[in-house]
């Protein structure tokens, strides 16, 4: 892991009004890695994700992407730097068809690669191909998650942010989605930053991981190390292997 | 078996009689004071009352018989049809469409193009005035306004209760600029559109952060502010007196429709003098403006900005995280919608020859919005149908002289136009909760296009 990381979060503090949600977070994501962030409810995982995307913006600290400071950029400009996000709760467009949803994810100014990229997404998630002219809102939860990830991939991202892709899904579907992520990483060298409650699956998948407690990163290491760590086991893994 | 069927029918009849009687009693109690008793001032300026049992009886009988027929005949009939449909197992989506269905838009357009001539052939030169002006032009103005508002409300999902403000801006721009500078209609039409669009952006800026109810209240206030300015800025707008004597539109300066000018249309062509030519000319102008609105809307929906509008309606946060500039998207929606309002306004001024703040009250905004909602938000065809039904229905009420024989000579049917609106609203929302045309035409295809049925989506969404 030599050289500058692709994404560097440095001493970031984020507030909701007067409430401090992140207090001095440092996270590095290198090119070609899968990095995951685990932690309990309310630890600030999603807030970190949203801070990287610029809504809310960090009050202090820096977010550096590809050597460029993006801390104070508006969200849509950050997205145009090819940071694609599959946000918490999927947030697909329910009244638009699957294909239109994918189109929204594609770089709006340049639809040159549209067909090619759609075929790629359909190859990864054949279910979406079957349902391409169906409305997003009529898909099942798993399909919506696939659509959300697919939509993010349409932007040909340098960095893919995934916020709880396993939320509310059956274990079998979760496994399918995680396999797809792994495949993307292996074959295309896609860099992935993943926020997960499902710590076991996330740690198994990731090259490195961070543990977050009360708005601070308390532990970091390779996925295997953290899986073996007794503290992590006690806090996040015992009482429920998924 | 036959016996059982008879029993069921008797049951239905008994139920119908019972429910009819109950409806009658409820109607009697409800209208006893409001309809049965009327107060009026006598010669001595004293408030006295008299009874109107006859009218009350009409109300009660209508309610009772209506309920009886609904429960006894209409509902069983509908149920039977539904059952039969369910048995055949054919989804409505896959139904073969008739020729009329498939070519509805083409037929409608051809009809509209022939409409003024048809009216002239059937009703004669002077007789057709009413049909071209009151029905044709009036309805098309509302179609255009509703299509313009549809961009803001139907596509971008920004609830705008003050749309009439842009209509007013367009009308007054035309009236004032034509009076002071003598510009022609064809120059002022785009100028009015641009000015209205500018006002759309001015309104857009402060409300960028608002959505839903909050946005509705602010836009409502904006509409009222424009109207109050028009009333009170008497130096420029002449207040409630309005501006009269606005120049007529000309046929690109070649022919004029003012009587007495050398290049008067009727004179040049050797036709008998009549105002119907001007009305027909205006009819084609507004038809062309409507087509322009429809064309622009359809084109924009397939372009990135139109897709961004629709996505914005669905989920603003997702839009931003996909790299869409929501500020610019909202402002263009406001500006584009306002621009068409401005076009319609300048046309309105040219047609009436007179503008006053009275034409731009909140009720107009409400009517336009009602047309958009009834038509099915986002659907151009549905909105056009809604405009025909609502505006045409209002105009028809004026024609219904025979109602005077039923309700007495004091009865003025056009006062009941809001009743018609309310009734239409209730009926449409009961049977077609997503509006006349509840389906949304997708804009992205890989191979073939496929209609998405409204029955696949939840009611009340979007």
Instruction: Report the principal-axis shape of chain A.
Output: globular
Number of strand elements of chain B: 4
What is the count of distinct domains of chain B?
2
Low-confidence stretches of chain A: none
Low-confidence stretches of chain B: 453-462
Name the helicity range of chain B.
55-70%
Kindly report the spatial arrangement of strands forming the biggest sheet of chain B: 1-2
Treating each run of at least 4 consecutive H or I residues as one helix, how many helices of chain A?
10
Which structural class fits the helix and strand makeup of chain A? Answer: alpha/beta
Largest sheet of chain A: 6 strands, mixed
For the termini of chain A, the CA-CA separation is: 30 Å
CATH-scheme architecture of one domain in chain A: 3-Layer(aba) Sandwich
Mean pLDDT of chain B: 81
Structural class of chain B: mainly alpha
Give the SSE string of chain A: EEEHEEHEHHHHEHEHEEHH
In percent terms, what proportion of residues of chain A is strand?
A: 25-35%
By CATH, the topology of one domain in chain A is: Rossmann fold
